[in-house]
């Protein structure tokens, strides 16, 4: 099956079913690794990973209530300037998350010499939380935290049951339960690397892992951010693209987590699968496909040429593109670049 169809196809006639999505993603990931040698490293595809980085830092913190918009996040991370009239806590929250995410990407593809070869360790989990939370903690520490509950340290408080009914374990149980969780993650990783059948789609296994971490809630604050960062560390170490849960998906994400609390991982698995496919489509495939290969227009859209603009140009015959029997328009980087140059020449004549 062709990667450009399996990975990138966005249903032209309605949203694909969960089963179809899982099958399509499985085939695409297999082809990504077998035909293309896996994900490009941050060095090989700097712009792609940089875009993922900005988007993840923005949306993952926005899920927790951060109000910086994407433009402000980009300026902060690229120029080190705080624009807008937001609190220092919010700027530090984004910066800390971005620092941790950059570390996650680097460790996943080029691990430090001290990495022990396991998919994940407790020390890495604690380090991710420490990096993400230290900047915000410096200006706005959790009001109930003791000196032993700072960034990277497990909570020593019990947490009241959540409104939805989920109750995290009492704090003395946290170290043992987190060790069990890390061990389960590593076992899952070994089975994936050996090509064993997990018995469920990989996205639902990842959903189970993500939900299990959040149910332990090992830190006094920042568990959602740490959980999403560690999930991405697991993903890229397995050779899968990282995911971004968008702020507009917050309601669906929380609803899926509540269903997972009750043992139903389907909705959360579907959300994770779509996020994986989205990043394959928008970030990874254009880098792998080469300038002449046809890919869906969604994979070729960028800041100055939106998906809608490319589709309109294709429909009017100004952009060389073909519409498949699935209703999806496809073009290539080469054709899009030629179209961009023709627009520039037209604008100059005017």
From TrEMBL:
Record keywords: ATP-binding, Nucleotide-binding
Annotated ATP binding sites: 221-228
InterPro entries: Fido, Fido-like_dom_sf, Fido_containing
GO MF assignments: ATP binding
A Pfam family of this chain: Fic
Fido domain ranges (all copies): 120-277
Record-annotated active site: 217
Site location (Important for autoinhibition of adenylyltransferase activity): 64
Protein name: Fic family protein
Provenance organism: Phytoactinopolyspora alkaliphila
């Amino acid at each position: 099956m062709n990667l450009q169809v399996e990975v990138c196809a966005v249903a032209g006639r309605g949203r694909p079913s969960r089963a179809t999505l899982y099958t399509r993603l499985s085939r695409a990931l297999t082809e990504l690794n077998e035909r293309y040698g896996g994900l490009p490293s941050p060095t090989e595809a700097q712009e792609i990973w940089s875009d993922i980085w900005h988007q993840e830092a923005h949306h993952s913190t926005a899920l927790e209530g951060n109000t910086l918009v994407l433009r402000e996040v980009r300026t902060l991370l690229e120029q080190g300037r705080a624009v807008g009239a937001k609190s220092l806590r919010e700027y530090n929250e984004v910066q800390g998350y971005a620092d941790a995410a950059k570390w996650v990407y680097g460790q996943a593809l080029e691990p430090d010499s001290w990495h022990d070869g396991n998919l994940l360790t407790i020390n890495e989990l604690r380090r991710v939380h420490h990096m993400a939370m230290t900047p915000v903690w410096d200006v706005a520490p959790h009001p109930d935290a003791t000196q032993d509950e700072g960034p990277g340290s497990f909570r020593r408080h019990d947490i009241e049951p959540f409104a939805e009914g989920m109750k995290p374990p009492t704090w003395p149980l946290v170290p043992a339960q987190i060790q069990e969780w890390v061990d389960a993650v590593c076992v899952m990783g070994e089975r994936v690397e050996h090509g064993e059948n997990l018995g469920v789609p990989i996205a639902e296994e990842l959903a189970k892992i993500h939900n299990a971490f959040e149910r332990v809630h090992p830190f006094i604050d920042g568990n959602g951010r740490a959980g999403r960062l560690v999930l991405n560390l697991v993903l890229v170490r397995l050779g899968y693209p990282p995911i971004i849960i968008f702020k507009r998906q917050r309601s669906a994400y929380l609803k899926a987590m509540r269903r997972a609390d009750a043992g139903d991982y389907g909705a959360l698995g579907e959300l994770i699968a779509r996020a994986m496919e989205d990043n394959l489509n928008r970030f990874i495939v254009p880098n792998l496909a080469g300038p002449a290969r046809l890919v869906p227009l969604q994979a070729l859209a960028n800041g100055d040429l939106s998906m809608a603009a490319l589709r309109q140009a294709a429909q009017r015959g100004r952009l060389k593109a073909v519409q498949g029997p699935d209703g999806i328009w496809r073009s290539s980087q080469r054709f899009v670049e030629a179209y961009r140059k023709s627009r520039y020449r037209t604008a100059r004549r005017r």
